[in-house]
Amino acid sequence: ERADKLGGQLRLAAAGPTREEVLDFVFYLERELERLAVDVRMGTTADRDAILAEQPDLVVVATGAIPLAPEIAVSGDANVATVWDLLGGAVKEIPGRAAVADDASGFWQGVSAAEFLAERGAAIELLTPARAVGLAIPEESLGNVMRRLRENGVHFRPFVNVASMSGTTIGLTDSITGEAAETTADLLVVNPRLRVDSELAATLEGRVPALVAIGDCAAARRLNHAVLEANLALRRFEAGALSERGLALF
Questions:
Q1: What CA–CA distance (Å, rounded) separates 68 from 195?
Q2: What's the pTM?
Q3: What pLDDT band is residue 7 in, cutting at 50, 70 and 90?
Q4: CA nearest 71: which of 173, 199, 161, 132?
Q5: 108-119 vs 139-151: helix axis angle to the nearest 10?
Q6: What is the C-alpha separation between 54 and 165, in angstroms, rounded?
C-alpha cells in the first residue's frame, strides 16, 4: 500500500457529508487482514522488481486510477480544483461563492462536493449537463440529499456544460442547444475524468504465473465491481483457470 492508510478512494468518499459510514467497510477489511495475519506493508510503492523477488504464484493488481486535469480552458487567476482535491484536504480556503461541475454521472461525487462546501458557508451553484442532479444516487438516499442541499441554499443548474473559467467568470454552454452563458464563482470544483493506473500490470505481464487487474486499474467504476472482481480472481485461481501468464480482466 503506497499510502500510510488503507482504503484508497473510499477515504475520499467518506469525507463527504453523511458518507462516513463508507469507512465501515475499510475497518472491516482491516480487521480481517489482522485476523488472517496478512503481511501489510504501508507506505510502500510496488514495482516490478520487488514483486518478482517475492516469487508469487498470483499477482492481483489494484493500483486504482489517476484523476486527470480538468478539460476546460483556464486563464487568468481562475481557481479550479477537483473533487479529489476538495475532499482530500488540498483546498485550504473555502470562498464565499463556489460552483461544482458534475459530469452527468449523477453519483455522489458532485453532490458530496456541493454539500461539503455549503456546510462551510459557501454559496453553491451545482452545474450538470444532465436533466437533474443525483440521478444515480439510490432512491432511499436521494430525498434526504436533496433536502439538505436545498436547506443549505444550493442552486441547481441542469443542462449546462462548463467550457472555461477566466478569473471568476465561468463560461457555460447549453448541453442541448449549445447556447453560451456565464456564471461567476471564486472556486470551481470539477469531478475529474480518471485514467486507469495500469503501468504496474503492464510491467508484470508475461513475467508471473498468473496476473489479474481488478477495480479502477482495469476500468474506473464502483466499489462493488472491485469486490466482485477480487472474488472472481481468487476463485478462478483456485480452480486453475488463471495460468496463461497473461493479464486477466473481468
A1: 7
A2: 0.88
A3: very high
A4: 161
A5: 30
A6: 49
